[in-house]
Amino acid sequence: MGSKTAENDSEGGGNAPPSSTKANATGGEPRGAHWSRDGDGTLGEGDADDDADGANGPGIDTSLNSQTVSSTNMKKKRKRSKKKSSVLKQSSPPRVPLADLFPDRQYPHGESQPYECVVENTARTTAEEVRHQSRHHIEDETILNDYRKAAEIHRQVRRWTQETARPGQTLTDIAVGIEDGVRALLDNAGLETGQGLLSGMGFPTGLSLNNCVAHYTPNPGQKDVVLDSSDVMKVDFGVHINGWIVDSAFTMSFDPTYDNLLAAVKDATNTGIKNAGVDVRISDVSAAIQEAMESYEVDINGRTFPVKAVRNISGHNIEQYRIHAGKSIPFVKNNDNTKMELGEIFAIETFGTTGRGYLFDGPGVYGYGKDPSAPKKITSHLASAKSLYQKINENFGSLVFCRRYLERLGVERYLAGMNSLVSSGHVELYQPLMDIKGSYSAQFEHTILLRESGKEVISRGDDY
Ligand SMILES: [Co+2]
């Protein structure tokens, strides 16, 4: 692999992907165009009017595992369109609150997947049983329905993103578009004190290009990045209601050159989901992910690159207001005998790269997150640190946020205070994560609930 790295570096010198740019301009079809055609346009029943224009035919569902979601929705949808002359549908950009699209306030279930093998309950230790008692919330109908609402909002906003994000737009426009959409559908602008804790963005919208593998978000006051037709863009955003976060991501490209890279990572993520389950060893999930991912190669400008699973970033479990709750699911073989447990929530995500597969911190800042175990009040000689800390507690709690989220609340001149909170350890700083120059990377991610009845892939859609 060392030699591959050297090759890649020298290629990186003349870094612009030479012929892919050409292919883009002519032959390449925007990935979003695939999506808008391939999917059935069903983002829940609210989308019902689509039937009228005949856009939906049979066999439109080309995605891997979306049978449950799409077929049930299609049936309901047809019925409804007949009954009502004007069914409310989602606007573009998305601005119709989800509650208005679902008058009965019952939101669509995620995809159900059975556990691969049923493990006897008696095998569980007492400690696990006890921990499970405190995790019974995912069987609570109210929490579950809210969680499904957040997932449906994710599907509707990402559908719009896939249909409209195009080269020539700035990353700020795309990020703000996503965030405005999420907040409108939640019907919560999050501008009043405390509202952001009720519902909102789960973390900073990630728009990471090419060799930036993860954790890039545009910051105010910095030179904006314009999306290029040769870019491979990971779109990673979260929607939370009462701190229960849907964490789901996909990758967009506008050049078929990268189709195999995207296919590898989508396959790896679906393999991870398939292998996940109660009492399953995390190392077994990791091994399956790696095997799927690394069975692919991608040809870029006449050179063949193996798709590598990224080594130092992983999937994770989620708890209320905690995006990374302590368990990690690497994408490479490991000796971690930790098991997944009943009642847990996991973000199953994978990253594949044509680069080295080892990430390093890039320049700039992605976001900040309060240490969940940090005290409510702090003593600091810096007044700005104290007031900033209060703002964070009131609006984000331990949710990760970015500078844009802070500035829309009217917070100004916070950098000195923030630096102080970071160095005192009350707040953690997140930076962009990079692979080597000239490399390309992709990501797909779903949130799954390990329920009694099986896995619920809550963020599954017809797109991925
Ligand atoms: Co995640």
Can you offer a commentary on this structure?
- With 464 residues, the chain is of the alpha+beta class.
- Helices cover 34% and strands 18% of the residues.
- The chain has helices at 2-13, 18-25, 31-38, 67-83, 98-101, 126-133, 141-164, 171-186, 195-198, 259-275, 282-293, 383-395, 403-407, 415-423, and strands at 111-113, 199-201, 206-209, 212-214, 232-241, 244-253, 297-300, 303-306, 308-309, 315-318, 328-329, 345-353, 360-361, 367-370, 427-430, 433-434, 441-451, 454-457.
- Residues 1-85 have low confidence and may be disordered.
- The structure holds cobalt (II) ion (CO).
Query: Which structural class should the secondary elements be placed in?
Result: alpha+beta
What fraction strand?
Answer: 15-25%
Q: What is the third-level CATH name, the topology of the largest domain? A: Creatine Amidinohydrolase
Mean pLDDT: 84
For the largest beta-sheet, the strand count, sense and barrel status come to:
7 strands, antiparallel
CATH architecture of the largest domain, by name, is Alpha-Beta Complex
* CA-atom Rg in angstroms: 22 Å
Distance from N terminus to C terminus (CA atoms, Å) equals: 31 Å
Give the overall shape. Answer: globular
The CATH H-level homologous superfamily of the largest domain: Creatinase/methionine aminopeptidase superfamily
Helical content class: 25-40%
How many beta-strand runs?
A: 18
Domain tally: 2
Which ligands accompany this protein? cobalt (II) ion
Low-confidence stretches: 1-85
CATH class of the largest domain: Alpha Beta
* Count of alpha/pi helices: 14
